[in-house]
Write a structure and sequence with these properties.
The structure holds 2 protein chains of 2 kinds.
Chain A lengths: L4 E3 L2 E4 L5 E6 L6 E8 L3 E9 L2 E5 L6 E5 L5 E5 L8 E8 L4 H4 L4 E2 L3 E5 L1
Chain B lengths: L3 E3 L2 E5 L4 E7 L4 E9 L5 E8 L4 E4 L2 E6 L4 E6 L8 E9 L8 E3 L3 E6 L1
Parallel strand pairs in B: 2-11
Antiparallel strand pairs in B: 1-3, 3-8, 4-5, 4-9, 6-7, 7-8, 9-10, 9-11
The chains are: A mainly beta, B mainly beta.
């Protein structure tokens, strides 16, 4: 158990709909990351937040948005869903925004499976 | 550019050693990681190596880094059926944005036959 909690674990929704994925980081971690894992794109970095502020942006579509709340939990909002958005969405957390350089590591949750039909 | 390449599949017999290889392109990589993903599960951090190291050993796992060739390998000694999983190589870089972003390879599926 990594200590990163994601909900829901599985979600099936129709095209055009909007969903929200939720993540609770490990206790004490200030940085939260979102990654998308799909068959064709592999594991792609979407976005990083640190202590409530956006820190880095990756291949995140404009239809997607995220935020980190004062209690440090994060939500990833996916709207106008398309079939190609079906994927496993991972949340990860670390103590600092520069975790890999400080010796702190990034821990991943078990992911939220999104199926768009 | 940012690119991490892995072979897609490796099959070994139980008890043999497994060697999973990875190449990366960004010479500014500072840390390199190996993650394990079991069916239906999340990513589990196995080990990592700092770019100024050549080797790191952790029980049955040995990581070798050839920085000149930008080649990373993970050796699993005495491979067990429970080691069957997808193994991801990942790199992090010290860019101007100073983020914790990881670049992942495509993953190598390790099949361990009894």
């Amino acid at each position: 158990d990594s200590g990163v909690t994601q909900t829901p674990k599985h979600l099936i929704t129709a095209t055009g709909q909007r969903v929200t994925l939720r993540c609770s980081p490990r206790s004490g971690d200030l940085s939260v990351y979102w990654y998308q894992q799909s068959l064709d794109q592999g594991l792609q970095f979407l976005i990083q937040y640190y202590n409530g502020e956006e820190r880095a942006k990756g291949n995140i579509l404009e239809r997607f948005s995220a935020q980190q709340f004062p209690d440090l939990h994060s939500e990833l909002n996916l709207s106008s869903l398309e079939l190609g958005d079906s994927a496993l969405y991972f949340c990860a957390s670390s103590a600092s925004y520069r975790a890999p350089f400080s010796g702190n590591t990034i821990y991943f949750g078990e992911g939220s499976w999104l199926t768009v039909v | 550019g940012e690119d991490v390449e892995q072979s897609l599949f490796l099959s070994v017999r139980e008890g043999d050693s497994s060697v999973i290889n990875c190449t990366y392109t960004d010479s500014s990589s500072t840390y390199l990681y190996w993650y394990k993903q079991e069916p239906g599960a999340g990513l589990q951090l196995l080990t990592y190596i700092f770019s100024n190291m050549d080797m790191k050993q952790d029980q049955r796992l040995t990581v070798l880094l050839n920085k000149k060739d930008k080649h990373l390998s993970l050796r699993i000694a005495d491979t067990q059926t429970g080691d069957s999983a997808i193994y991801f190589c990942a790199e992090s870089m010290q860019g101007s944005s100073n983020t914790g972003k990881l670049i992942f390879g495509q993953g190598t599926t390790l099949q361990v036959k009894p």
